[in-house]
Amino acid sequence: MPSIALGSEETLARPAPSSPVTYAQTGVRQDLVALALSKLLEGTKGRIPPGSGEPLKLPGHFAGIVRIGRESVALTTDNVGTKLLLARTLDRWEEVGEDVVAVNVNDLSAVGARPSALVDYIAVQSPVPSVFEALGRGIGRGLKEACCHLVGGETSVVPDLVKSLDLSGTALGFFPKGRAPVTGEKLRPGDVLLGLSSSGFHANGYTLLRRLIEENAIDITRPLPGDPMPLGERLLAPTRIYTRPVEALLAARLPLALAHISGRGLRNLIRLNPKVQFTLDALPPLEGIFRWVADLSRLPTEELYQTFNMGIGFVLAVRPNHVERSLSVLRRSGGKDARVIGRVEKGRGVYLPNEGVRYDSY
Length: 362
Known about the structure:
The protein is an alpha+beta fold. It has 2 domains: 59-174, CATH 3.30.1330.10; 184-359, PurM-like C-terminal domain (Phosphoribosyl-aminoimidazole Synthetase, Chain A, domain 2). It is built from 10 helices and 13 strands. It has helices spanning 30-42, 83-90, 94-109, 129-146, 206-215, 231-236, 243-251, 288-297, 301-307, 323-332, and strands at 54-55, 64-68, 71-79, 114-124, 149-157, 165-174, 192-197, 257-260, 277-279, 312-318, 339-345, 349-352, 357-359. The strands form 2 sheets. Strands 8-10-7-11-9-12-13 form a 7-stranded mixed beta sheet, with helices on one face. It has a 6-stranded mixed beta sheet with strand order 1-2-3-6-4-5, covered by helices on one side. Mean pLDDT is 91; it is low at 1-17.
């Protein structure tokens, strides 16, 4: 990949502005995704005979929940996406191994389920033992952090379908005795929104990120100004796993709603409750890699916050009289960065007053 001009400290110089490129222009059209999914779901309609459990009606939530007798389980599935192409470029695979655990267990946490088990699916052109070894180390780190078991998986050698490697997983969670699913239906105006920071762009928006890097001829082996880490490694940082702080808050029976800020950015909050407004008036300022992508892309703020997490990776809603206690619990359990980022109000959608941005639908 060609280099741009380097400063005296061998860091990336800020490139000249280019015409903004949106996520849709890279070929990722969320409207088309929604339409395709609606067509798929039309074909799945039908009544399943009793005895196979009863799914909770939570369309569009972070994980599906099925009640089986007196118990409930949660299921979710996700993949690492085109971040894998960055891993291939750098020949670094441990980080995306950790990602495949994180993207799934975080979705389980977002419905209040405790992660229990994961199965992985790896599709390859040809298996490379050293790559699988590195993936295994990353998956192992993620499992340890999430207190989750790897109980199986599938490896498919399909050279006609993939030219390198695709990685996805499916995770199972459960609800400990006395814990009900947390869906957001109890939210009401006055509730407070807490945020936990992200470790980077996690595993979303990489189709656009790679397009920006290519069009601006950026050398990802060099760091950004003020950052000791090469840009490529910074972009490859694994998705933060929020299991421990979220579990601590759930054990204290404090959260009313939980949201994993992944694909679709802050629009994810609408999935919790479409009958209230999520006003985010205390988001952290854009710094580091988030400031860099805002300057590089010159995208409208609306596009940035619906494509990337922009620094907040998980949101938790609590009653106003539980804010200090919740912050204390989070900070003692791995969420030292927990902060108030907004509140629930009358209305609908997501509103960022300081940025002048409003999202009316997911």
